[in-house]
Amino acid sequence: MATSASTIIAAIDIGSSAIRMDVAEVRPEGSIHLLDSLKKGVQLGKDAFTEGYLSEEAIRAACALLRDFKKVMDSYGVSRYRAVATSAVRESSNSDTFLDRVLMNTGLDVEVIDGPEENRLTYAAVLESIRGIPELDNGPSLLVEIGGGSTDVTILRDGEPLQSGTFPLGSVRLRQEISLTGRTHEQQIRLLRRQLSNLLTNIKRSVSVKEAVNYVAVGGDVRFAARSILPAASNSGPWVVSREAFSEFVDAVLPLPVESLVQKYSLSYLDAETLTPALLATLQLFKE
User: Fold this and answer.
1) Burial of 235 (C-beta count, 10 Å sphere; 0-12/13-18/19+)
2) Same domain flag for 165 and 63
3) Parallel, antiparallel, or unpaired for β 214-218 and 141-146?
4) How confident is the model at residue 4 (pLDDT cuts 50, 70, 90)?
5) Quick one: average pLDDT of 125-149?
6) DSSP 103-124
7) Per-residue confidence at 212, pLDDT binned at 50, 70, 90?
8) Alpha-carbon 272 to chain mean position
């Protein structure tokens, strides 16, 4: 229960494959206590990355979910919030329509953020978590977040960003941009590898990936991988995983089609669809 001097805040992330919200209490001494964390899949990127617009079905689903999130915010007495939308909304020709619909249906004012702001938020979110990890003190680190529609990459030295960039490489975008229908799973993986190779070439031109000796990966897919590799570790992270262990886990996941991932790991179908592209992209970046 919040004290009279506490502030209840919320953060909403409208991504390409899911919408997430965290509600937290900021206590008088400045500490932050997480009260609630919600996530549900909404495929805003499904049409955005192929047709260039958000479908009516996706807009309705997003508005319905955000109405539910607003009720949760009201129940906690949220006094301040920030709601942001990333690549799927940013790249859609009807993004203004989406923002207006959300505002009319929920009262929430959503901000479409650009790539540099995505990078800044990713860096700010992990900075406190990675401070004091001795494994990161022996040279530059590569901070990577592979989302549904874009990838944020930052080179860190002594905890400070040296280079950064946001690139059109995402787990949802990858699946949408290459035709996987009617192909065997092995053919799908080969197509993903080929597409990733082309995209990673562009990233390497902009960010000195090869200088990194440590790697910091952010996002739901890599959290799932870390928890699977280190089942006895803390739930909150951060987790220190060797590159070899991560590579072995990805190699074990790659041969499994989506249906097998759902059954083996009790994943939702949407999470299973994005798992392989996200982990493969992360591994390829770490191998550069």
Assistant:
1) exposed
2) no
3) parallel
4) low
5) 82
6) HHHH---EEE--HHHHHHHHHH
7) confident
8) 14
Q: Decide the pairing of beta strands 110-112 and 80-85.
A: parallel
151-168 pLDDT, tens digit per residue, is: 999 998 877 888 888 998
Q: Are residue 202 and residue 143 in the same domain, yes or no?
A: yes
Is the Cβ–Cβ distance between 58 and 99 less than 8 Å? no
Taking the C-alpha atoms of residue 158 and residue 148, their distance in angstroms, rounded to an integer, is 29
Q: Taking the CB of residue 134, how many other CB atoms lie within 10 A of it?
A: 7
Same domain (yes/no): 34, 158? no
- Per-residue pLDDT of 214-235, as tens digits, reads 888 988 899 999 999 988 766 6
What's the CA gap between 101 and 105, in Å, rounded? Answer: 6
Location of structure tokens 């035709």 = 179
The yes-or-no verdict on residue 178 having pLDDT over 80 is: no
Nearest residue to 216 via CA among 165, 285, 155, 142: 142
Total number of domains in the chain: 2
- Specify the CATH number for the domain of residue 64: 3.30.420.40
Q: Is the pLDDT of residue 71 over 70?
A: yes
**Percent of the chain that is helix, strand, coil (3-state, to 5):** 50, 20, 30
The domain boundary residue, chosen from 49, 83, 113: 113
Beta strands per DSSP E along 115-229: 141-146, 151-157, 160-167, 214-218
Helix (H, G, I), strand (E, B) or coil at 267: coil
My answer on whether 257 and 125 are in the same domain is yes
Confirm if 62 and 102 have CB atoms less than 8 A apart. Answer: yes
R_g of the chain computed on alpha carbons: 19
Largest alpha-carbon pair distance within the chain?
59
